[in-house]
C-alpha cells in the first residue's frame, strides 16, 4: 500500500516540489513561509489553495505557539488533510439495480485503464458488471475495452462506428433486463471535429435517463494527476456540462505532483472515489485525505 506513496514523494522531489525539504530550516520565519509557498505552487496546489493553506497554517502555528519545524510540518499535514477531507467519499453501489455509472475524460487521461480497474474492483466486491463501449469513434478504445472485458470476464455492448447514445441506451436497457448490478458507460474523450464533445456527452446522459429514470447514478470524470491546473480546468468544464458526482485521479505514481487535489478541494470539492497509482489492474486505491497529506509532505 505504501509503494505509491513512496513514488509520489519521489515524483515531488524530482519536480522540485518537495514540501518536506522546506522544514529542514531550523527557524519558523517569513522566509520559511515564502519557501513553502513556492513548494506548494510547484506541487500544483494552485494559488487559491496555496493561500488558504498558508493562512490556515499561520493560524494553527499561532494557536499552538509552535516553534519546532517538525511540529509546524505536522500542523501543515493537518491543514492539508482538513482541506482534502471533503473529497474522501466512497463510491456506493447497490441502491439501484443497475447502478449506472457514466465515465468521461479527455483522451490519454487514463479512462480506459481506470474502467478496467474499476471493473475488477466491482467484480472483487461480487458485483455483476456490464460495460457499454460508447466511445465508438476511437477504434482502439473499443478494442482496449474488449481486452479489459475479457480479462474481467464481463459482458460488453457496442461496436465501433455505432451511435454512442444508442449504445448507452441499449446497455442500460440490457443491464436492467439482465439484473446487472452495475452498467459502466465508457464515453469518448475526443470527437470528429464537427461534433461538440460536451453536447454529445449531454445527449448520452439524457438518453441513459430515458432508459432508466433515475440514471445515471454517477457521472465520473477521469483526470490525469500530472496535468496540474489543466486537470482543474477539465473538472470545471465537465462539471458545468454534466454535473459530476465523482473523480478518478490517475497517474499519482511516477512524476505526479499531487497538489492538484488541494486545488480541486478548494474550488470544486467533488469526491475522489479512486486514485490510479500504476498501469496494472490492481493499481487503484481508495482516496484517504490523511494518507495523501502525509505522502505529499514526504
Ligand atoms: P484514455 O485515453 O483516457 O482511455 O487513457 P488510457 O487508459 O489508454 O491510458 C493512457 C496511458 O496512461 C496508458 O499508457 C496507461 O497505461 C497509462 N495509465 C493510466 N492510468 C495510469 C496510472 O494510474 N498510473 C500510470 N503510471 N499510468 C497510467
Automatic annotation (TrEMBL):
Q: May I have one GO cellular component term?
A: cytoplasm
- Source organism, top-level taxon: Bacteria
Catalytic activity of the protein? GTP + H2O = GDP + phosphate + H(+)
Name the residues that span the membrane: none
Give compartment(s).
Answer: Cell membrane; Cytoplasm
Keywords tagged on the record: Cell membrane, Cytoplasm, GTP-binding, Hydrolase, Membrane, Nucleotide-binding, Receptor
Pinpoint the SRP54-type proteins GTP-binding domain residues: 271-284
Q: Name one GO biological process term.
A: SRP-dependent cotranslational protein targeting to membrane
EC class = hydrolase
Q: How does it sit in the membrane?
A: Peripheral membrane protein
EC number from the UniProt entry: 3.6.5.4
Q: Name one GO molecular function term.
A: GTPase activity
Positions binding GTP in this chain are: 105-112, 186-190, 250-253
User: What interactions and quaternary structure are annotated?
Assistant: Part of the signal recognition particle protein translocation system, which is composed of SRP and FtsY. SRP is a ribonucleoprotein composed of Ffh and a 4.5S RNA molecule.
Indicate the family of this protein.
Belongs to the GTP-binding SRP family. FtsY subfamily.
Give the function comment from the record. Involved in targeting and insertion of nascent membrane proteins into the cytoplasmic membrane. Acts as a receptor for the complex formed by the signal recognition particle (SRP) and the ribosome-nascent chain (RNC). Interaction with SRP-RNC leads to the transfer of the RNC complex to the Sec translocase for insertion into the membrane, the hydrolysis of GTP by both Ffh and FtsY, and the dissociation of the SRP-FtsY complex into the individual components.
UniProt name for this protein:
Signal recognition particle receptor FtsY
Biological source species: Xylophilus rhododendri
Please name the taxonomic classification of the source: Bacteria, Pseudomonadati, Pseudomonadota, Betaproteobacteria, Burkholderiales
Amino acid at each position: 500500500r505504501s509503494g505509491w506513496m513512496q513514488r509520489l514523494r519521489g515524483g515531488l522531489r524530482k519536480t522540485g516540489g518537495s514540501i518536506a525539504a522546506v522544514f529542514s530550516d531550523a527557524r519558523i520565519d517569513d522566509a520559511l513561509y515564502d519557501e513553502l509557498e513556492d513548494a506548494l505552487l510547484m506541487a500544483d496546489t494552485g494559488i487559491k489553495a496555496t493561500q488558504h493553506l498558508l493562512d490556515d497554517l499561520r493560524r494553527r502555528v499561532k494557536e499552538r505557539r509552535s516553534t519546532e519545524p517538525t511540529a509546524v510540518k505536522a500542523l501543515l499535514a493537518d491543514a492539508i488533510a482538513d482541506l482534502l477531507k471533503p473529497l474522501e467519499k466512497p463510491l456506493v453501489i447497490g441502491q439501484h439495480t443497475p447502478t449506472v455509472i457514466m465515465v468521461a475524460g479527455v483522451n490519454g487521461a487514463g479512462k480506459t485503464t481506470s474502467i478496467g480497474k474499476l471493473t475488477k474492483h466491482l467484480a472483487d466486491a461480487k458485483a455483476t458488471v456490464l460495460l457499454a463501449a460508447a466511445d465508438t469513434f476511437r477504434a482502439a478504445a473499443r478494442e482496449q475495452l474488449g481486452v479489459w472485458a475479457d480479462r474481467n470476464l464481463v459482458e460488453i455492448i457496442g461496436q465501433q462506428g455505432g451511435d454512442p447514445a444508442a449504445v448507452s441506451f441499449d446497455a442500460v436497457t440490457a443491464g436492467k433486463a439482465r439484473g446487472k448490478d452495475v452498467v459502466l458507460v465508457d464515453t469518448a474523450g475526443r470527437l470528429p471535429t464537427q461534433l461538440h464533445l460536451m453536447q454529445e456527452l449531454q445527449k448520452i446522459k439524457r438518453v441513459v435517463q430515458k432508459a432508466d429514470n433515475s440514471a445515471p447514478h454517477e457521472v465520473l470524470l477521469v483526470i490525469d494527476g500530472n496535468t496540474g491546473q489543466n486537470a482543474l480546468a477539465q473538472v470545471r468544464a465537465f462539471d458545468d456540462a454534466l454535473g459530476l458526482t465523482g473523480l478518478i485521479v490517475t497517474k499519482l505514481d511516477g512524476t505526479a505532483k499531487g497538489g492538484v487535489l488541494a486545488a480541486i478541494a478548494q474550488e470544486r470539492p467533488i469526491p475522489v472515489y479512486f486514485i490510479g497509482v500504476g498501469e496494472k489492474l490492481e493499481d487503484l486505491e481508495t482516496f484517504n485525505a490523511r494518507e495523501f497529506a502525509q505522502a505529499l509532505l514526504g
